[in-house]
From TrEMBL:
<keyword id="KW-0648">Protein biosynthesis</keyword>
<dbReference type="GO" id="GO:0005829">
    <property type="term" value="C:cytosol"/>
</dbReference>
<dbReference type="InterPro" id="IPR001412">
    <property type="entry name" value="aa-tRNA-synth_I_CS"/>
</dbReference>
<keyword id="KW-0067">ATP-binding</keyword>
<dbReference type="Pfam" id="PF00133">
    <property type="entry name" value="tRNA-synt_1"/>
</dbReference>
<protein>
    <recommendedName>
        <fullName>valine--tRNA ligase</fullName>
        <ecNumber>6.1.1.9</ecNumber>
    </recommendedName>
</protein>
<dbReference type="GO" id="GO:0006438">
    <property type="term" value="P:valyl-tRNA aminoacylation"/>
</dbReference>
<keyword id="KW-0030">Aminoacyl-tRNA synthetase</keyword>
<feature type="domain" description="Aminoacyl-tRNA synthetase class Ia">
    <location>
        <begin position="19"/>
        <end position="101"/>
    </location>
</feature>
<dbReference type="InterPro" id="IPR002300">
    <property type="entry name" value="aa-tRNA-synth_Ia"/>
</dbReference>
<dbReference type="GO" id="GO:0005524">
    <property type="term" value="F:ATP binding"/>
</dbReference>
<dbReference type="GO" id="GO:0004832">
    <property type="term" value="F:valine-tRNA ligase activity"/>
</dbReference>
<keyword id="KW-0547">Nucleotide-binding</keyword>
<keyword id="KW-0436">Ligase</keyword>
<dbReference type="InterPro" id="IPR014729">
    <property type="entry name" value="Rossmann-like_a/b/a_fold"/>
</dbReference>
<dbReference type="InterPro" id="IPR002303">
    <property type="entry name" value="Valyl-tRNA_ligase"/>
</dbReference>
Length: 101
């Protein structure tokens, strides 16, 4: 026999996403205050780089850094964690030329 709970039977992903996105924006969870000097934590990582077929190493390489940044943000530190993708297009262009001519 199923136990009664206060949880809904179906999880409403879109509603939950809207709720937490609004909270993060209202609380400025991902903001960095350049004028705040206490508890500053900075991670300067190289951008992801195209290197052949995707594999777990691509995920692992950035996941642990993301974990450390988020952990420090949750501890109340002013975290500077710029993210981006910049490989000047050349590796992508070469991979396309190699595969498709």
């Amino acid at each position: 026999m199923a136990q009664e709970t206060s949880y809904p039977r179906r999880f409403k992903f879109k509603d939950i996403q809207k709720k937490w996105t609004k909270f993060w924006q209202d609380e400025k969870i991902y903001s960095f205050d350049i004028n705040r000097k206490d508890q500053m934590f900075s991670i300067d990582t190289p951008p992801p780089f195209v290197s052949g077929e995707l594999h777990m190493g691509h995920i692992l390489n950035h996941s642990w850094i993301d974990f450390v940044a988020r952990y420090n943000k949750l501890k109340g530190k002013n975290v500077y964690f710029p993210q981006g993708f910049d490989c000047h297009g050349l590796p992508v262009e070469l991979a396309v030329e190699k595969k498709y001519g």
